[in-house]
Amino acid sequence: TVMATITAKRESGGWKTHNYLLQLAPQGDSQAYEVAVAYSFYQTCTEGQLIALKVHPGFLGRGWVSSYGNS
Description:
Elements: E1 2-13, E2 18-26, E3 33-37, H1 39-44, E4 50-56, E5 64-70
C-alpha cells in the first residue's frame, strides 16, 4: 500500500457517461497517477488529502492502481 496526496479533482464525460478522476502524487514516487473513482468516494475527497493506493508494477515500468481508499 502506498500513500498518495490528491493534487486535483476533475470530472469528464458526456451525456450518458461521467467519470470522476483524482490526480494523485504518491509519497516517495516521482510518478503521478490519474485514477477514476466511484462518485461516492469522489464526493468525500478534498485536494491535499492523503489516500491509500494499492499499486502494482506494470508494462514498461508504468504502475497501475488496483484499489484505493481513505487512509
